[in-house]
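ok new one. same drill as before - structure tokens go in, u give me an amino acid for every spot. 204 of them this time. try not to just spam alanines like last time pls lmao
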């Protein structure tokens, strides 16, 4: 049984909106703190591990980007180094806002756990069927934020099973209702689906 959360936790989504510049990332931290967020979340990844040189941009990316047609080239411009993420985590501590990041590959997840050790491990929707990745995270037995965009109920149940099988306690898995459409239309939110996620999480 879950304990009632006494305070709503606000996570500011920085993602890759720093455009690969640490000065922009620090500015986002400042803005998130000013707005009263509890956490700010970035994205940590190695472009060479999560895409190929021939992978096309998603339709919504093509609408806003010019001069770039491939995922790898785009992501290479938007990535930060591990050393820079350590610097950002220290900057967050200085500004009294907590650091989070979604790791998109196993080396990135291991780096976040070993070198920064955030309060939560954030699993992005796109990795929900990545079994080796999920098994690695499961062995951490840390609190997990699980995004579920584009996922079926069967897939969500399977992720929970994999994490628990590898050592994560059920109470540490926080399943998040997500819609992978940016920006999401109000008509597509389907917030009542949260009731289904409650049943999977056994929240009463």
């Amino acid at each position: 049984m879950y304990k009632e959360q006494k305070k709503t936790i606000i996570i500011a989504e920085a993602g890759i909106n720093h455009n690969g510049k640490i000065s922009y990332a620090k500015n986002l931290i400042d803005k998130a703190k000013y707005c009263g967020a509890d956490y700010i979340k970035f994205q940590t990844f190695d472009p060479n591990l999560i895409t190929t040189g021939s992978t096309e941009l998603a339709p919504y990316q093509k609408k806003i980007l010019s001069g770039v047609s491939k995922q790898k080239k785009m992501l290479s411009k938007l990535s930060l180094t591990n050393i820079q993420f350590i610097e950002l985590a220290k900057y967050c501590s200085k500004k009294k806002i907590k650091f989070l990041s979604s790791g998109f590959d196993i080396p990135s997840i291991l780096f976040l756990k070993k070198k920064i050790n955030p309060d939560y491990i954030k699993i992005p929707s796109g990795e929900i069927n990545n079994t080796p990745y999920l098994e690695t995270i499961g062995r951490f037995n840390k609190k997990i934020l699980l995004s579920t965009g584009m996922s079926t109920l069967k897939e969500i149940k399977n992720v929970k099973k994999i994490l628990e099988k590898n050592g994560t306690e059920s109470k540490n898995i926080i399943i998040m209702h997500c819609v992978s459409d940016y920006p999401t239309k109000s008509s597509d939110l389907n917030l009542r689906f949260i009731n289904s996620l409650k049943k999977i999480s056994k929240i009463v």
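The mean pLDDT is 92. and btw Residues 49 and 105 are 7 Å apart (CA to CA).
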